[in-house]
Design goal:
This protein has four domains: 8-137, 3-Layer(aba) Sandwich (Rossmann fold), CATH 3.40.50; 151-274, Transcription Regulator spoIIAA (2-Layer Sandwich); 275-395, Transcription Regulator spoIIAA, CATH 3.30.750.200; 399-453, OB fold (Dihydrolipoamide Acetyltransferase, E2P) (Beta Barrel). The chain is built from 15 helices and 19 strands. The relative contact order is 0.08. The protein has helices at 22-35, 61-80, 94-107, 123-130, 145-148, 154-159, 181-184, 193-205, 233-241, 261-269, 286-291, 298-311, 330-343, 370-395, 456-460; strands at 12-18, 40-42, 51-56, 89-93, 113-115, 135-137, 163-167, 169-170, 189-190, 210-214, 248-252, 276-278, 316-323, 347-352, 399-407, 413-417, 423-427, 436-444, 449-453. A six-stranded parallel beta sheet has the order 2-1-3-4-5-6, with helices on both faces. The protein is an alpha/beta fold. The structure holds S-adenosyl-L-homocysteine, iron/sulfur cluster and FE3-S4 cluster (F3S). S-adenosyl-L-homocysteine binds at residues 59-60, 178-179, 181, 216-217, 253, 255, 280, 282, 320, 322, 351, 353-354, 356.
Length: 461
Amino acid sequence: MSDNPAPQSNARKVFIKTYGCQMNVYDSDRMTDALAPHGYTPTTDMGEADLVLLNTCHIREKAAEKVYSELGRIRDFRDERGPGAKKMLIGVAGCVAQAEGEEIMARAPAVDLVFGPQSYHRLPDLVERARTERVVDTEFPEEDKFAHLPAPRREVTISRGLTAFLTVQEGCDKFCSFCVVPYTRGAEVSRPVAQVLAEARALADAGVREITLLGQNVNAYHGLDAAGQPVSLGALCHRLAEIEGIARIRYTTSHPRDMDDELIAAHRDLDKLMPYLHLPVQSGSDAILKAMNRRHTAAEYIDIIGRMREARPDMAISGDFIVGFPGETDADFEATVEIVRTIGYASAFSFKYSSRPGTPGAGMDNQIEEHVKAERLDILQAEITRHSQAFNAGCVGMTFPVLIEKPGRNPGQVAGRSPYLQAVHITADAGLIGQILPVEIIGLAKNSLEGRIVTAATAAV
Ligand code: SAH
Ligand code: SF4
Ligand code: F3S
């Protein structure tokens, strides 16, 4: 296959709808990139699509069920177009595809193609086959997917903006007893250092200023360098920080067990590494942490956060919580609320436990009733909101560097992010987009901060 632009007659459109985590967002772009040399351009209008792909998430029951209702809608849409319309293939990718391959084919006869996250480099071939037969590909192939996925053209990267995701690690060997990820994404694999650096350089060359390194357990990263030696995430951050143009580095999601001294030290030593840590704990109760197979205690988690804050005193902490795990008592739940108070999260995500097929949690006794989960979630979210509001309020009057990313909601406004990942709205000229400027926080909106750019003149007052 040549990389030359396809002739007009071959021009095809792909519509991709993405669910789930940031890795799926990254993967959807890579699928677009894989299809580009074959004449496909992305569209946001399903009506003109030759290929519709759903990139799905299996993490909770609701997320997985959404896929089937969406497939029903797409089938109706296709049927309504009538017999004269051009053929539209329907494909399901992502974690539901991996977990339920054949079941999707049985439940949704309109689907032409089902393929898991490890098959994305094969997508053009799979689509060709799907023109004549229904195709399921949920194998874990031998070859390195990333080595086979084509890079986007520079103009495409430019069109995607000033911040970018970069997957450095995929899969998980932790097997927390509630979680499907080890089954949907497979074993932990780290991309080689040279591959990561090459991708980061291409991003920087296209004007990207901030990269977020992705992995299901990103701090378990141990990709090999040219000498065949494993490199930790902290060391990788040092190498990425040397790339001119890349001004900010973030990473997500980390696991407490993999939080090593090198990564903590990197936060002390690297200005480019942003002071924001997403470190899920799930529960504050040691009994529940044990039942979840998290393999650390609440005290160990608190100690890690303490060491991070010693290395980088302004570190903002974020987390994930699950309420209503099987056997969770009122006292266990109270310990979770307590750890939220102890840490003082800048932000956090919390979920009702969702029983997932094939996980050990699904078979446990003492499943918690739905109304108890709902009550606990309300209480926990109120506590988290108190802390995140206090964190945001504490920023008023402070000045910090903001990456101006895009036009704001209203004319005359621009929008960016603080080092702590807060959205900041600023009244300023769109010509400043792409710069990192000192911004004083002057007010709070519902989900963002209001700021003004500090110039020599405003700094004097
Ligand atoms: N690798 C990350 C988390 C990936 S899943 C980690 O180890 O923390 C993202 C979040 O979804 C998890 O942190 C957890 O809070 C939530 N989650 C995962 N499985 C869940 C389930 N079965 N029910 C409810 N929430 C779940
Ligand atoms: Fe899931 Fe646990 Fe792996 Fe995170 S560490 S992806 S929660 S099994
Ligand atoms: Fe969902 Fe798969 Fe991500 S289950 S959270 S899309 S890794």
